[in-house]
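Shapes recur. Our protein:

. . .
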Amino acid sequence: DVEHAGGGLWAYFGKDFYHASMAPLFVVTLLLAYLARPSTKEPIPEGFENFRKRYLVGWCLCVAADWLQGPYVYALYSAYGYSMHENAQLFVAGFASSMICGCIAGGLIDKFGRKRSALAYCLCYTLSCMTKHFKIYGVLMLGRILGGIATSLLFSCFECWMVSEHTRRHKFSDGLLSYMFGSMYMLMYVVAILAGFVAQAAVDVLPFEPIHEGSRIHFGGALAPFDIAIMVLLVGAVHIAVCWEENYGGTEGGATMGITEVFRSAADAIRSDRRLWMLGCVVACFEGSMFAFVFNWTPALEDKETPPPLGLIFSAFMMACMCGSCISTIAGKHWDAHFKLTMVCLAGVAAFFAIVFATAQHQIRICFLGFLAFECLVGAYFPSVGVLKSEVVPENVRGTVYNIYRVPLNAVVVCLLLTNLSMLRVYGLCASLLLLAFIFSSVLKRSSVDNKTF
């Protein structure tokens, strides 16, 4: 039996290059996760562990729904028979809606409450997942628009809720806030890795097919992860509704600022503190290149001889992200968030130069390794930029500023997709964006020193 199990394991990891990479990547991830496990030397005040668990359970459930879909959005549209250009149009709809939503959602989040916004995220993403069952271009377009709105909410209102509860309601220390961010991103990548494996297993259960011959409604195959995401979102919505308290932007007393006042305050803050708009430029350039990569990695790895196992590859990417997050945590004992962010941007330039070379030479394995390297940098980027945003952005307009940051990054992605550039040129532009992010990050560090803020 042991021999048979060993042979089965060897056969699994020996299937192709992607399967072979999983074992060493998993070992490295476990080692780094152990070395970088979140910890703090500060005394834990009463109520902190309860607050931490309430937030992290809601965050993990809601972000899991997003990760479950990640590997199969492009693949699903391709399975419906849509071309790469039509695929790009659907992706543009999502990014454009996220960009437009970013213009107004921040004020609404701060005005009407971060908890309500988190529940709105669950509703929008549930409806978006439901539309995926229809082979109707207009319905799929509506789903992408809802998904774009949901994404804008996911990466703003959850963090805003946590930071406000931590600093305003409970008045916990900055050191414990850093500990919260470490726990948040560590668990996010654990969830993402598991989501990739679950998605891959779910896709393999039933074939992708219409419910009856000639029907436009489909089930199975690449749709399975979206159905699991709906169930996860329902559980997440119940947890948030029961366990979270509401908080707002504005003054200490609650939602006292009107939407117009919130936007005016955010605009005044950005005008008066150049660190805010420079940090926004870093976010736009780095995350713009990241989302351009999200659209292009699936077609870049397509190969008739070795069909890419998308869920497995996604899990590998998330393991690389987790490695980057862990390295950032370990490095945090010696380097501040500014220095780490600057180095990540510079290393990203090198990673995309390698990807450009591999794409030009049609070296899929090298391209995959380049993708892993960039994902590792993405993992190091988010904790660093999260700490900087928490320190630079004023609490009373946090949700508004976070969403304003998403406007230019979505504009960057929309421009890259609408221009119908080749993958080679897109990767070259990604390298250029990361070089700009490096420059802005360097200037931001000097500005922060001048202001004596950090």
Remarks:
- The longest helix spans residues 174-203.
- Strands lie at 209-210, 218-219.
- Residues 325 and 382 are 8 Å apart (CA to CA).
